[in-house]
Design goal:
about 210 residues, alpha/beta, Rossmann fold, 2 domains, about 55% helix, binds adenosine-5'-triphosphate, coenzyme a biosynthesis
Length: about 210
C-alpha cells in the first residue's frame, strides 16, 4: 500500500535562509528532499539525463573527465528559448520523479521539500502546504555579499530574475520571518513543526477513513 506522505514545500528568495531553516527541521528528525541536489544528480556522470544531453548538444558539452560542462550548457541555452525549453522538458520530469521517490522512501512524520523556484516552476502542485522564508531585499543583498563575496550588482541581477517578495508571500500558506536572530528563528520552526505533525496526523486519519 502506498502511504500518502505530508509534504511541506519550503521556498524563499536567494539567501533568505532556506538551508538554515531546513536544517532546524532536520534537528527534529524530519527528512529533507533538496531540489538543487537532485537537479545535479539527474545530470551526473553516466546518468540517463547526461546521455540525452550529449546526444542532443554533442560531445562538446562534456568536460574531459566525462562530466557535464555546466558553463557550456549555460551558453547553449542562454538567450535560446527553444533549447531551454528542450532542456527543461527533459529534466523537469526526471527531477520531479526523483523528488517523489525520495518522499516515498522517507520514514519521518512528514517531509520538507526544499525548492528555490517552487512557484516559478509550478512544483507547488506536488506539495500539501507551502512555507516561505522571508527577508527584505536589502537583507538578501547584504547576506549574499557576506556569504558568497559577490558584488551588489550581481545579487541585484539574481534578485531581478526571481519572483518578487510580494508575489511569493501572496502564495504562501505559512511564512517564516528570518530577519531576527537565530533564537527567534528556532522558535518559529518549533511552532511550525508542531503544526505540521498535526496536519500529517490528520492526513493519515483521513486516508484510513
Ligand atoms: P540560497 O538561496 O542562496 O541557496 P538559502 O535561502 O538557503 O540561500 P541560507 O544559506 O540558509 O539561505 O542563508 C543565507 C546566509 O544568511 C547564510 O550565510 C546564513 O548563515 C545567513 N543567515 C541565515 N539566517 C540568518 C539569520 N537569522 N541571521 C543572520 N544570518 C543568517
Amino acid at each position: 500500500m502506498m502511504l500518502k506522505k505530508f509534504i511541506v514545500g519550503l521556498t524563499g528568495g536567494i539567501a533568505s535562509g532556506k538551508t538554515t531553516v531546513a536544517n532546524l527541521f532536520a534537528q527534529y528528525g524530519i527528512d529533507l528532499v533538496d531540489a538543487d541536489v537532485i537537479a545535479r544528480e539527474v545530470v551526473s556522470t553516466n546518468s540517463d539525463g547526461l546521455k540525452a544531453i550529449t546526444e542532443h548538444f554533442g560531445q562538446a558539452i562534456l568536460l574531459t573527465d566525462g562530466s557535464l560542462d555546466r558553463a557550456a550548457l549555460r551558453t547553449q541555452v542562454f538567450d535560446n528559448p527553444e533549447q531551454r525549453l528542450w532542456l527543461n522538458t527533459l529534466l523537469h520530469p526526471m527531477i520531479r520523479q526523483k523528488m517523489l521517490d525520495q518522499v516515498q522512501t522517507s520514514t519521518s512524520a512528514y517531509v520538507i521539500m526544499i525548492v528555490p523556484l517552487l512557484f516559478e516552476n509550478h512544483l507547488d502542485s506536488l506539495v500539501d502546504t507551502t512555507l516561505v522564508v522571508d527577508i527584505a531585499p536589502e537583507l538578501q543583498i547584504s547576506r549574499t555579499i557576506q556569504r558568497d563575496g559577490v558584488s551588489k550588482q550581481q545579487v541585484e541581477h539574481i534578485l531581478a530574475s526571481q519572483m518578487t517578495r510580494e508575489q511569493r508571500l501572496a502564495q504562501a500558506d505559512n511564512i517564516i520571518d528570518n530577519q531576527g536572530d537565530h533564537e527567534v528563528l528556532r522558535s518559529q520552526v518549533f511552532g511550525l513543526h508542531q503544526q505540521y505533525l498535526q496536519q500529517a496526523a490528520d492526513l493519515e486519519t483521513n486516508v484510513h477513513d
